[in-house]
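User: Some background: our group keeps a shared notebook of sequences we're curious about, and every so often someone picks one and asks for a predicted structure to add to the entry. Today it's my turn. The entry only has the sequence so far, pasted here. Could you supply the structure so I can complete it?
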Amino acid sequence: MNSVKNMINYSMNSIVGKFILTFLMLHTIHYLSIFVYTTWCSDFTIVGYFKNIINGHGPLCHTLMTIAYHAQCNIYTLIGASAIGSGISSISESIFKNKVINIINTDINDNTNHIINTDNNNNIIINDNIINNNN
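Assistant: Of course. Here's the predicted structure to add to the notebook entry:
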């Protein structure tokens, strides 16, 4: 049970989990507002066509339709923004994949700084000493 809870917590704290939760939340808001709108505000009969001229444009019906519209717009914005963000991150990852990365690591015990780099051959360089990383 604890491992299932940890897995759910991990997945909901990830970017993909937050995307799915946001999408489901917006879809639920859209669905419920359209459901209530069609139940309370729309009559799909011949007489309902004329009744909706008077009843269908009230403040409650307008509010429900506005909520549904904005939830749907936010779904499209969410999908577009995530697609653009994924594209930019994949492009930047492919550009900077084999570049030198400088990391300054401070060891608490000896208070010395170690500069850790990688080169284009995936060798690890610590303080100008090359460590072969070919597996």
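Suggested note for the entry: Residues 2-95 form one domain. The chain has two domains: 2-95, 100-135.
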